[in-house]
Specification:
The protein is of the alpha+beta class and 109 residues long. It has 2 helices and 5 strands. The chain is 13% helix and 25% strand. The longest helix is centred in the first third of the chain and has 7 residues. InterPro entries: 2Fe-2S_ferredoxin-like_sf (IPR036010), Adrenodoxin-like (IPR001055), Beta-grasp_dom_sf (IPR012675).
């Protein structure tokens, strides 16, 4: 089993040190849900299909995230509270290159 350490600041401003597995094909949205860092029904509303932006996060420290795809870019173009460092958690697949990632969960519309 291979794990990485990431920091996630919830919508209340509390920072959580999280251990996330790299061998379970999870994405950041699923990690946030599994640790219950956002109120039920306010994250991953579309099920991780890049269609709602409820899993939007602000990347504080980027150790090497994969490039943003066209679907993610298009969804962020329609979302609320978008910043230059916005990403969709459902599109960030947990991998060893994400060690040290720090994000803040964006406000829910």
């Amino acid at each position: 089993m291979s794990d990485i350490n990431i920091k996630i600041t919830d919508r209340e401003g509390v920072t959580h040190d999280i251990v996330a597995p790299t061998d379970m094909s999870m994405n950041l949205m699923e990690i946030i849900r599994s640790y219950e860092l956002a109120e039920e029904g306010t994250i991953g509303v579309c099920g991780g299909m890049a269609m709602c932006a409820s899993c939007q996060v602000y990347v504080i420290n980027n150790p090497g995230l994969e490039e943003m795809g066209a679907e993610e870019d298009a969804m962020l173009g329609e979302a609320f509270h978008v910043q230059e460092n916005s990403r969709l958690g459902c599109q960030l697949h947990i991998c060893s290159e994400m060690e040290g990632l720090e994000v803040e969960i964006a406000p829910y519309p």
